[in-house]
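Q: Could you fold this chain for me?
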Amino acid sequence: MLSAKSLFQEILDNDESFRLFCSIAASGESQGGWENARIAALVPASERALAPKITRHGADEDKHGRIFEALLRKRGLEPVPVPPETDYTMLLERHGIGLAHDKLKGDEPLTVQDVVTYLSHSRVTEQRASEQMDLLRKHFADHPDIGRAVKMISHDEDNHLAYCHEELLRFARAGHGRAIQRTLRECALAEIRVYRDVSLAVMAHMGRILGWSKARSAVLAAGIHAVYAWERLAGWRRMVSLRTPERRDALGGPATTAPEFA
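A: Sure. Below is the predicted structure, expressed as structure tokens.
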């Protein structure tokens, strides 16, 4: 039976597919770490109190990248180059989502609107990350090799999502509500397209590595398109709502360190 659990178990059991999966994940997390570090450094003076939380967010992303690299080392594997069509963060930037890297590489302070854009982008992408890690935690929390990593990363992603809700609500109360809703909607609609395209690309690479039949690949592709259709119709709305999170001040403390996987 084809299920999310059986699909990921197949990827996990094969060294080459696991190598590609961890390489893609590590690259994306490391990129997120760099972006957050630059944003923290460029936060405008009026929002300097937010900088430690952005720094914590970036440190968590860096930690996740190191965790995926450690999982590779544990199996005696080296990372592989990430195929461009599977690079989620790069494709989001190319579609104008988030803050442009050219801006982040400079020294000009960000504006408050830039911070609102960053938080709105993060609200959308952290929704995706939280859901994906929740799915992995559901099926693999007790796995001897990846269980500890899955639980730690899932907990962090939930914290990141809570932080985005809390900070965006603060900005909404300060008069940025209309801009936030507009930006959230634009980000969500772009993200679901990028997620569809990246999912199709990743499954194509996995299919070649694992020798999937054309019929099986077609079924998986149809499933990805069906998810996109639902998200385009109504599912994107879950990415734009704002509510007071149960976890308050979720990024108010220091980042935790990556565990050892030797």
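A (continued): DSSP finds eight helices and no strands in the chain.
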